[in-house]
Structure formats: C-alpha cells, structure tokens
Amino acid sequence: MTATATEPGRAGAARDDRVASRSLAARLLSRPEVGSLIGAIVIFLLFMAVAVPFRNIANVGTILYGASTIGIMAVPVALLMIGGEFDLSAGVAATTSGLSASLIAWNLGLNVWVGVVLALVVSVAVGAFNGWLLFKTGLPSFLVTLGTFFILQGVNLGVTRLLTGNVATADISDMDGFGSAQKVFGSEFALGPVTVKITVIYWIVLTLVAAHVLLRTRAGNWIFAVGGDAAAARAVGVPVKATKIGLFMAVGFCAWLSGMHLLFQFNTVQSGEGVGKEFIFIIAAVIGGCLLTGGYGSVVGASIGALIFGMTQLGINYAGWNPDWFKTFLGVMLVLATVVNVYVKMKADRR
C-alpha cells in the first residue's frame, strides 16, 4: 500500500523536474547573447580543425589581444545601442584621443601624463557634445555622430599636418613620464606560454563592470527604459537626457582608453587611423545580441562578438585563406546575427 501510494508522487516529481528543465533551457535560449555564444563555439571549432597554428596555446594571447582592441569599444557601444542610440564617431574618437595626448605633450614640452589627462578631457567632452547635440537638434544620433565623425577625421588630419608637417605624430618615447604611462596603457605580462597584453585586462574589467551596471543597478534599468521607449521612460521619472548623454560620455572614456593604448603601444599615432572601425564595434554589438531599435542587448554578448572577430581575423591567416574574404564574413555575420536576435527577442517576449 505504501509503495503503491508513492508512485503518483514520484511521477509528479519527475514531471516537475522535466518542466523545470525545459523552463531553464527556454530562459537560457532567450538570452540576447546566446547567438554570439553559439557562433563563437562554431568559429572556434572550425579553426581548430582547419588551422594548425590556431591550436598552439601560445597564440591565445594574440587572439585575445585582437579581441580586446575591439571589445574595449564594443562594450560602451553596446550600452549606447541598448539605450537606443548610435555613435559613428567612436573609431576616429580613439585616434583623436591619442593625437591629443601626443601633440599637447610634444608641442608644449610637458610631461606625457599631462597630455594623457587633457586627452581624457577632450574624449569625454566629445562624447558629451554628441549627446548634447542630439537633444539640442532633435536629429537622429546616426546623423549627429556621422557629422562628428567627419569633423574629427578632418581635425585629426589637419591639425597633425599643421603642427608636425606630417600625417603622424612624433615619437614621444624619450619624453618625461613615457615609461610609467606605457606600463599603464601598453604593457604586457607572461601567463605561462601566453603573452597577455594589458588591453585584455581592461576589456575584461569593462565587461564585468558594464554587465553589473546594466543588470544590477537602477542606471541599468534606465538604459533599457530609454532604449525601449524614451517618452514612456520620461513619463515615469527616468532622467532620459542625463542617461543618454552619460552613455555617449562612456563611449568617449573608452575611446580615450583605446587611444592611449594606440599611442603607448607604437609611440606615435597615424592621423588617419580608426576610420571604419566604428562599424566593427557596432557589428560586434549586434552579433552580441543588441537590436538596432534599442531596448535590448547584452554587453557580455558584445564581448563575445569581439572575441569572434579576434578568432576570425587570425584564424583566416592561420588557415592560409585569402584575407580579402574577411569583409564578406562581417556582412554575413551581421545579417545572421540580426535575424537570430529578432528571433530570440520574439521568443523572450512570448514568455
């Protein structure tokens, strides 16, 4: 009697376990970064199979370095896209930062750190200007930052040529403060057979901080709210203007960090550097789960998108394939990621 009576209970418990398992799987598959994670696994397995150097653990540092230089900017760009805006000036803004630090320190004979601090002011000011102009004009951020892109591109080239007579800054490696600044922005360390660049650490830290802010703080709720419906967010007391300007300034800060690495890794900056990289940052964010319409996305996914870029760039070379096909890969990944993101969003909404 006792054994028979417990059979329905066991069956019910087993049924509950199956339901819980299906529910957990559904929640995982509805995460915005799921598409990029699957894509990263596929890319990893592909190059592990076809590219022998890809299997060399010593090359992990090179792959991570390539991913980090994209990921440092992809993370704030993803936050901005979740907030419903774009920044097409992000690529050249990093170059502007590096040029500012170098030109200020060199031409005024100052300690390199003075140039670094003033470059931070310039970079954050560019971000604030983008946000201010967005609200002042009411124009789409696509147009506002496209204008900033051309302005900065022209200023980068014009000012550099005016002050140096060349398209690149002078080598600042013998200036006061260069050694300590290089340790902060351009150093590396060995982790077994892997050489890890400092940008990898910055990339990981930025991803963790941004993910925490987005998912665990009130500011993160504001970002999702202003990206989903700015008018409704404003109606319930969300500081829409401050949130969006803050996101543009975050892009400016990371552009400064990227620009400082550019300067202290190579000791000089080419004034034409950065053109076209803004699209790579956006594509990484889209691959990571961000929708172009805003209000949805993941900074972890954007970092995975950057990792996909890092693996693909080097994987193509390691496999001996024609690198001209890399841009084709970008286009295919953008289309596929957009389709997957829309599908995942629909599945999440149904829940």
From TrEMBL:
Origin superkingdom: Bacteria
GO molecular function: transmembrane transporter activity
Membrane topology label: Multi-pass membrane protein
Record's GO cellular component terms: plasma membrane
Record has Transport as a keyword: yes
Compartment annotation: Cell membrane
Keywords: Cell inner membrane, Cell membrane, Membrane, Sugar transport, Transmembrane, Transmembrane helix, Transport
Transmembrane helix recorded as keyword: yes
Residues that span the membrane, as ranges: 34-54, 60-81, 112-135, 142-163, 194-215, 246-267, 279-305, 325-344
Role, per record: Part of the binding-protein-dependent transport system for D-xylose. Probably responsible for the translocation of the substrate across the membrane.
Protein name: Xylose transport system permease protein XylH
Originating organism: Planotetraspora phitsanulokensis
